[in-house]
Design brief:
Number of strands: 11
Number of helices: 3
Radius of gyration: 16 Å
Number of domains: 1
Strand content: 15-25%
CATH topology: Rossmann fold
Distance between the termini: 24 Å
Structural class: alpha/beta
Largest sheet: 7 strands, mixed
Shape: globular
CATH class: Alpha Beta
Amino acid sequence: MKFKLGFKAKVNLRNKIHICLNKIFRTNKKIETASLYFPINNEISPFDFINYLQKKRVTLSLPIIDKKNNTMKFKKWIPNDKLICGPFGTMEPKKAQISVFPQILVVPLLSFDREFYRLGYGGGYYDKSISDLKKYFKKEKKFFITIGLAYSNQEERKIPREKHDMKLDYIITENYMLSNINNKFLKKVL
């Protein structure tokens, strides 16, 4: 899929990202870590999160894919750090970087539905990571949330799913923001 956002759509997306983050930080002051992704194949860039998260003194990370063990880990990342090319053409921090358990996980979407399911590139790396992180933070009694980024025309009526597929907490597009928190649905078109 090839999509490109115009100036107004980029501003709308940035505003929705800030609305979402303001809502999250208003109710959860002790967020210490977050993971973004390095966009490939015309995915929406999550880099509008960077300044906001840095002002809140949140440690940033990027995912590292371990194809051999079918897992994804998160390594500390500082903007302008040198990255290496990983599987699937993703850019990753060096493996020697410090491991991070992200409390905010920003996820790329190929498509999504209003039940908060997503399609990625296959492999289930994000689904497994979301499941593992939910268990970890539940045990630690800490906050964890997922945010998916997509273009509004990537929305599908219903995404095919399997039992291991995980729902997202928020989905943000250039036209609207969907919230799965407390079963509330937000739609605000600017």
